Amino acid sequence: MSVVESCTRVRLDLDWLSRPHPFLRREADVPANPSMPGWFADLDPDVDSRLRLADPDLLALAVRQAITDVLARHDLLDSPGVRPALDLLASGHAAAQPPRLEGPGSLTSQLQEEFEARRFEVAPHDDPRLRRWQAAMALARAFSRFRDDVLDPLGSVYLAAGDEWPHIRNTLLRLLNS
Fold first, then answer.
1. For residue 159, which of 74, 65, 81 has the smallest C-alpha distance?
2. pTM of the entire predicted model
3. How would DSSP label each residue in 45-102?
4. How many CB atoms lie within 10 A of CB 157?
5. Residues of the chain with pLDDT under 50
6. Is the distance from CB of 172 to CB of 51 less than 8 angstroms?
7. Which of 86, 89, 148, 156 gets the highest tally of CB atoms within 10 A of its CB?
8. Which residue from 136, 130, 114, 137 is spatially nearest to 162, judged by alpha carbons?
9. 70 near 138, Cβ under 8 Å?
10. Which of 122, 115, 120, 121 is nearest to 136 (CA)?
11. Which H or E run contains 42?
12. How many CB atoms lie under 10 A from the CB of residue 147?
């Protein structure tokens, strides 16, 4: 009552409470796993919340499509281990650990080394080496055994996309609305 009174400046008395009043009740689906959102929620909370309410198969397709999009934008689709990893994702085997994505000599470590070797030459948000590394990290995060959130790869997709994020975002929203 105090919330209503403070917002409307109308005092609700016992007489008002004793009478019946019309009301509206909304029943919404509660996600199966109402866990705390990951770091992607800080980057694009609207897309994050829409994806969390999506069907799990549609969610997996959306994440896979966004990852594939940034890998293509950075010419990484033909890099070692990328196509087999995408095939594993498409077949629903994200629990498997694809070869050559993480660890010494892997695609992600090579791209990280390229970025760190010249990291102070360009502002990080303008550095294409950082974006390429994040594109590879998006794919690696889709398989991470320590991933806390199914949307974690999209944080790296966001960073890899840079100024192209609105295009990827629109693709995700169209997919969700289809």
1. 74
2. 0.75
3. HHHHHHHHTS-HHHHHHHHHHHHHHHHHHTT-TTSTTHHHHHHHHHTT-TTS--TTSS
4. 32
5. none
6. yes
7. 156
8. 130
9. yes
10. 115
11. helix 40-43
12. 15
